[in-house]
Amino acid sequence: MSVSLSVELDNLKVVGSPFDLAGTPRQRVNFGIDPTLGVFEMDVVKHKYFGLGETYASFTRDITLTPPGVRATQYGLAIVHSHNATAKFMDREWVNVNQGGFYLTHNPGVNEMHFFKANEAMKMHFLEVQPAYVNELLTNVSPMRNTPLWDFKDQAIKGEFAGAGGSVTMSVLYQIIRDIFNCPLSGSLGELMLEGSLQQLLATQFAMLGAQQQHDSIHHRDQELFYAIKDHLRASFQQEHSLLTLSRKFGVNQNKLKTGFRELFGTPVITYLYDLKMDYARTLLLDKGMNVGEVAPIVGYRNANHFSTAFKRKFGINPSRLKN
User: Fold this and answer.
1) Which CATH superfamily is domain 220-322 in?
2) Which of 24, 167, 287, 293 would you label with 277, given CA atoms 20 to 30 Å apart?
């Protein structure tokens, strides 16, 4: 049976200091995981502005890795190639990055945790970049409103935590990553070539986050309404909501609410609300030490069994197994 386990890794700080940018340009890092728990290692390329790690992790039990201490301010980019990655920053909700997805963060130094599911060999690339370098790039980018890049830039430049993600075209990113790991030059020319690949990688991510989806069938005024509904759900997802109550509160037809919300955000409004509840439930189970019976009513389930079924459908694991 899988067991949830919190592991303190004294030398995980290697990841927390942009892979210790000084030193040799290429190395393999093994974090000294107990072999009975599994494997966690990283092949690292280091540059004066960034560190790029090709990470492989496979555990025999559900593992929550907690880096010790507070991290230095960094921009981070995770690109997941196989299975899923799950992370939590300070007291925020857990973030799930699916296979074929990416997640870009500006971490001003908040604590973080990473969750790995048992018997799932995960491969991902993780990039960390010095903040001053990315800040300079962001100041020259002018994203459109109502795009993830707009929000990300606004929060990051203010020095706040920022996170945004989506799906990627793996063939494009993989080629850039291969160019970094297989840089044919050394010395100052090699540094210049690696910096060019870094800029290409970041530009690709900015373009993905800054792409303005076209919703010609949705009037601008209606788009603002749907964004207001989305913000309302994020602020009050623990309360009882239905299409009827939402349509009455915001003065919109139920059918228009259903179709417009799905078209604008790519998910039905009820599914969006369900995901908010399940992510919060997972936080309560893993971080607050609460049990299934306590969490179920908090996220709107009167029956704990119904909650467990919904949780397993979302995360693929029974919530009670996170506590064992």
Assistant:
1) Homeodomain-like (1.10.10.60)
2) 167
